[in-house]
Amino acid sequence: SIDFVMEERNKTLGEFIIENQKAHQYSSGELSKIINSIRLAAKVVNYKVNKAGLVDIVGAAGDQNIQGEDQQKLDVYANEVFIQTLINREIVCGIASEENDEFITVEGLDKSHNNKYVVLMDPLDGSSNIDVNVSVGTIFSVYKRVSPIGTPVTLEDFLQPGTAQVAAGYVVYGTSTMLVYTTGHGVNGFTLNPAIGTFYLSHPNMKFPEKGNIYSVNEGNYIQFPQGVKDYIKYCQAEEEDRPYTSRYIGSLVSDFHRNMIKGGIYIYPTSSKAPKGKLRLLYECNPMAFIAEQAGGKSSDGFTRTMETIPTELHQRVPFFCGVEAMVEKAEEFMKNA
Ligand code: AHG
Ligand code: MN
Ligand code: MN
Ligand code: MN
């Protein structure tokens, strides 16, 4: 057998990016450069995450972010790595992050403000899981600016509906580290070979199964959920044909989503009396995941309307989030409507 050269049958992410650029005729290659920078930053963060218990990177950093959350050291570290990697390559005109109060203006070469893309990101998703060696992730989203080239980036460049995304993806630092992304032509997943620092195409053209039997929701908040969500959870638990469904909740959106896309499931973070607007952030978490979900044949909404059609009004806006297998999201929406 030639199993030991298995990896070499697969394309690398670097090769894939070049082919993708040619196939879809991105004029300038700027988008390819952005994905390349994210690939690089992901490897740097992966290296740190992997030895988290050995170096002084576990635990709280001592500050709170604008979300009112205690920042973990790894939140701050990942944020710095992704921002610096993008800034140093002078390929974006602006960056917005869960960990920064305001967006960052990137001047670009000769302070020309000539770059045309903005990146929005959740640098470290699932940060409450770092200390206990459970999978965490990174989420990113790319838009073309709407303000004129040659001028500083504006808030409007970031407050675009998810339908305007040109690329979105996530990195999951799990039992293996994967980078999964879309540029609107399907979803592809790449697994890192940590020994040589190369991502290989391991999951081409990822699709949600047509049916699923996993539901992921923090049921500790059950009492506080809207009636429609309570009813849907009871539906998941009922003894009927293919039910009860299986409950799986990691507490890292990236990991929960990743499992549900591969095995078939629905993720719900609804409103609750504690979080009246929901918890997850539209721009850094929900829209990129929604774009990936739809590109993989899944569906995403706030329980009533499509996530990507929400018109954002502020950078750190929160929304309820229902995302996963299309038929499952539609079922949950039915319960929301009839509650
Ligand atoms: P972050 O670590 O980026 O702040 O995101 C945390 C999010 C998400 O990853 C996860 O699914 C959710 O918060 C978990 O919230 P609960 O602990 O309330 O279930
Ligand atoms: Mn956070
Ligand atoms: Mn997050
Ligand atoms: Mn985060």
From TrEMBL:
Question: Which pathway does the UniProt entry assign to this protein?
Answer: Carbohydrate biosynthesis; Calvin cycle
Protein's UniProt keywords contain Cytoplasm = yes
List the cofactors. Answer: Mg(2+)
Query: Under which EC number(s) is this enzyme classified?
Result: 3.1.3.11
Per the record, the GO terms for biological process are: fructose 1,6-bisphosphate metabolic process; fructose 6-phosphate metabolic process; fructose metabolic process; gluconeogenesis; sucrose biosynthetic process
The residues listed in the UniProt record as binding substrate, with positions renumbered to this chain, are 125-128, 218, 249, 279
Domain of life of the native organism: Bacteria
Do you know which CDD domains this protein is assigned to?
Answer: FBPase (cd00354)
HAMAP family named among the record's database cross-references: FBPase_class1
What binding partners and quaternary form does the record give? Homotetramer.
Q: What is this protein called?
A: Fructose-1,6-bisphosphatase class 1
